[in-house]
C-alpha cells in the first residue's frame, strides 16, 4: 500500500495571479496611448507589426508593474486598496515577481527592437528603468512630488508608439507626452484626497500627507491650468486640427471647473457628501485623457481622407 | 489503489500550465507573423546575413 501526502496551504498561485502582477488596468492605458502614438505618426506601419509592437509595449509596462509589486510589497500589505495583490497576500513570492518582471522586461525590449526599431526598444527599456528604479525604488518614498515624476513613466508610451513608426522623437510626440505627464498629478491627487488614510498609514509621502489637503486642492488646480494650454496647443501641431481643438476646449473647460470646485471645498463639506466632487473629478479625468487621444485618432482618420488638420 | 479524483491543487496547477502553454503559443504565432510581415514587405535583404542585396539596388547614375 502506498500513501500520498500533499502540502496545500491554499496559497498556491493561479495563472490569473501572474496576470495581476502586470497591472492589467494600467496596461490598458499604456495600450491605448501607445496605439494612438503609433497610428497618428506620419509613417505607415504594417498592421501586424503595429499590433505586435503595441503588445510588447504593453508587456514592458506590465513588467515594470511586476517590478513595482516586488519592491512595494511591504507598503502594499498595509494599504487597504492593495492588500489583496498577489505578493502581499502571499499567493506569489516576491522573488517570483522580481523574476517575472526582469524576464518580461528583457523579452519585451528585445521583441520591440526586432518588431519596430532599436530606438523604440531602448526607449521602452528606459521607461521600465524609469518606473521601476527612478520612481518606485528611488523617489516614491522620498518626495511628495513622487506622482509628478512617476507620471513621466506613464507618459512615455505614446512617444514609444510614435518612435516605432518614425524611429525618433518630434514635437508631436513630446506634446502627447506633456498631456499625459501634466494630467497625472491632478488625476492621482484627486484619488489621494479620498484615499488619504491608506497613504498615511503606509508612510508614502503623498502631498495630502506632507502638505495637507488644502495645498493638494491648490496643486490640482495649478496642474489643470498648466495642462490646458499644452493640450490646446497640440491642436496646432501636425497631429491636431479643428475637431481636436473643439474636443479639447470642452474637456478643459469641464476639467478646470471641476478643479475650481475642488479648490473651493473644505474638508467638512467633502466629508459631508463622501467626497462626491473629488470622486467625480477623478472619474472625469479618465474621460479627459481618453477624449483627447480619441480626438487625435479621429484627426488621423480624417487626414487619411484628406480631411482634418488645418 | 488508483488515484481517481484530482485534488483542487491539481486543477489550479493545470490552469497555470494551460495559461503558460497558451502564452507560449501566442508568442510563437507572433514571431511567425512578424517574420511573414517583414519578409513579405519585400525588403532588399539577403536572408542569410541580412546585408543589402546589391543586385536589387537601383543602378548608380553614370557620371
Can you characterise this structure?
The complex is a heterodimer of chains A (310) and B (63). Chain A has 310 residues and is an all-alpha fold. Chain A has 14 helices and no strands. Chain A has helices at residues 15-21, 24-40, 47-71, 73-76, 94-115, 118-139, 146-166, 171-193, 196-202, 207-210, 213-233, 242-264, 267-272, 276-304. Chain A has two domains: 17-167, UbiA prenyltransferase (Tetracycline Repressor, domain 2); 170-310. Chain B has one helix and no strands. Chain B has one helix at 8-40. Chain B has a domain at 24-57. By secondary structure, chain B is an all-alpha fold. At the A-B interface, helix 1, helix 3 and helix 5 of A face helix 1 of B.
- Total number of beta strands of chain A: 0
Biggest sheet record of chain A: none
Number of helical segments with 4 or more residues of chain A = 14
- The percent range for helix content of chain A is over 70%
Instruction: Tell me, rounded to a whole number, the average pLDDT of chain A.
Output: 92
How far apart are the termini of chain A? 84 Å
Based on secondary structure, the structural category of chain A is: mainly alpha
Instruction: Round the Cα radius of gyration of chain A to an integer and report it.
Output: 21 Å
How are the SSEs ordered, and which strands pair?
The complex is a heterodimer of chains A (310) and B (63).
Chain A: H1 15-21, H2 24-40, H3 47-71, H4 73-76, H5 94-115, H6 118-139, H7 146-166, H8 171-193, H9 196-202, H10 207-210, H11 213-233, H12 242-264, H13 267-272, H14 276-304
Chain B: H1 8-40
Question: Briefly, what is this?
Answer:
The complex is a heterodimer of chains A (310) and B (63). Chain A has 310 residues and is an all-alpha fold.
Fill in the keyword field for this structure.
heterodimer, A: about 300 residues, mainly alpha, Tetracycline Repressor, domain 2, flat, B: about 60 residues, 1 helix, rod-shaped
